[in-house]
Specification:
Strand content: under 5%
Structural class: mainly alpha
Oligomer: single chain
Number of helices: 3
Distance between the termini: 48 Å
Largest sheet: none
Number of strands: 0
């Protein structure tokens, strides 16, 4: 099965490693499980929204 151009453009080919309190991590993962989602999916969605919300701010002339 060949990957389409869309799949290649959206390929998850990078990692972001962060250090957080283990209790906070465990609570986050537990909440994600309760909401039938994954922690990775929620973090990716947060990053996409954050970039979209702030991208135009960075493009303004200074």
């Amino acid at each position: 099965m060949m990957a389409t151009k869309k799949n290649k453009a959206n390929a998850k080919d990078s990692q972001l490693i962060i250090r957080i309190n283990s209790e906070l991590k465990d609570n986050f993962i537990s909440l994600c499980d309760d909401m039938d989602t994954s922690a990775a999916r929620e973090i990716r969605q947060f990053i996409k929204r954050f970039v979209a919300d702030h991208e135009s701010e960075n493009e303004k002339p200074q």
